[in-house]
């Protein structure tokens, strides 16, 4: 069961480890990222950042869709992490269970517009966000669980 689906370009870091994981009761961090899945050093680095006693699963985006839809993860308390709107969109379209996506942090990059203190979006990101909204997926911005949810559409 997906407890939280979060977009954060840092993937596993302090906010995820010390605030989100216990707040949502996750017992497994599930990272869907093609680059990390193929890089042993990055996988090891994320493994060092995860909370003690919490599993870490790292898959490519396509493998993540397969694993999240085959029913074998239904008893896990998952905190799903992606580092881009593109990957979030792919998972949300491929995994029916995705009903809400939390925007944590997307740092400024070339061609991106800063829409909040922690989120910069490209024109393509905004198109994908609008598709997710049309599909009925809740898209909310919060850095930490105690922040008030802010709908991403209010920032576009």
Automatic annotation (TrEMBL):
Chief place of localization: cytoplasm
Assigned GO CC terms: cytoplasm
Matches recorded under PROSITE patterns: PTS_EIIB_TYPE_4
Ranges of residues in domain PTS EIIB type-4: 1-156
Keyword vocabulary terms for this entry: Cytoplasm, Kinase, Phosphotransferase system, Sugar transport, Transferase, Transport
Cellular localization per UniProt: Cytoplasm
ATP-binding in keyword set: no
Record's protein name: PTS sugar transporter
Gene source species: Puia dinghuensis
């Amino acid at each position: 069961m997906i407890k939280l689906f979060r977009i954060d370009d840092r993937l596993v870091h302090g906010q995820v480890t010390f605030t989100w994981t216990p707040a949502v009761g996750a017992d497994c961090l599930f990272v869907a990222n093609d680059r990390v899945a193929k890089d042993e050093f990055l996988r090891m680095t994320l493994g060092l950042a995860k909370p003690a006693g919490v599993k870490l699963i790292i898959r490519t985006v396509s493998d993540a869709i397969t694993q999240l839809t085959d029913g074998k993860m239904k008893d896990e308390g998952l905190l799903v992490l992606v580092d881009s709107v593109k990957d979030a969109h792919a998972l949300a379209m491929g995994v029916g269970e995705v009903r809400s996506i939390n925007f944590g942090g997307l740092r400024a990059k070339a061609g991106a517009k800063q829409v909040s203190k922690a989120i910069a979006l490209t024109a393509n990101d905004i198109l994908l966000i609008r598709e997710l909204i049309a599909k009925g997926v809740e898209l909310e911005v919060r850095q930490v669980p105690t922040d008030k949810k802010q709908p991403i559409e209010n920032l576009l």
